[in-house]
């Protein structure tokens, strides 16, 4: 059976692309999760006058970094699940990825909304306007939802029975 086209590829091609991008993205974030605490600690050793406040801030930042690292390890694994499910044409793997994607999108949205309300606008000493944070959140949310829809279309096409033409 011929796949529907989404742009220049069918849903299977886009699903593979989503899996590759998700896997590479999570690897990059995991690598960053190792180096960010080192940068924060070096920066903290330079400013000794606020050592108690820095230790409290560093502990909370370390907690967030560990939580993000766990999240990206899971995201890496689920990217591999998506790639395997698409390659092996197994709709169960795609369903597992979609459940993970919906849950992580909801968690991401909740944390970004909290960040928008609680943020002072500074990230590692650099001022970032809240409008930029909100714009990035909207774009990211749309891409997450689009990815879920594309994988859902691919899963539906996998589940369709093969139609064998009649020969008379």
UniProtKB/TrEMBL annotation:
TM segment ranges: 20-42, 63-85, 97-119, 131-153
Keyword entries, A-Z: Membrane, Transmembrane, Transmembrane helix
Keyword Transmembrane tagged: yes
Protein name (Swiss-Prot/TrEMBL): Uncharacterized protein
Species whose genome carries this gene: Allacma fusca
């Amino acid at each position: 059976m011929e796949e529907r086209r989404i742009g220049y590829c069918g849903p299977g091609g886009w699903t593979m692309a989503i899996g590759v991008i998700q896997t590479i993205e999570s690897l990059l974030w995991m690598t960053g999760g190792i180096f960010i605490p080192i940068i924060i600690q070096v920066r903290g050793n330079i400013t000794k006058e606020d050592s108690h406040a820095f230790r409290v801030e560093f502990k909370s930042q370390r907690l967030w970094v560990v939580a993000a690292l766990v999240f990206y390890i899971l995201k890496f694994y689920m990217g591999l699940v998506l790639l395997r499910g698409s390659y092996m044409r197994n709709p169960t793997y795609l369903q597992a990825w979609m459940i993970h994607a919906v849950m992580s999108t909801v968690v991401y949205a909740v944390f970004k909304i909290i960040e928008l309300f609680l943020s002072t606008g500074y990230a590692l000493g650099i001022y970032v306007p809240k409008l930029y944070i909100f714009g990035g959140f909207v774009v990211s949310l749309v891409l997450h939802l689009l990815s879920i829809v594309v994988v859902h279309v691919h899963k539906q096409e996998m589940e369709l029975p093969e139609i064998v033409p009649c020969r008379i």
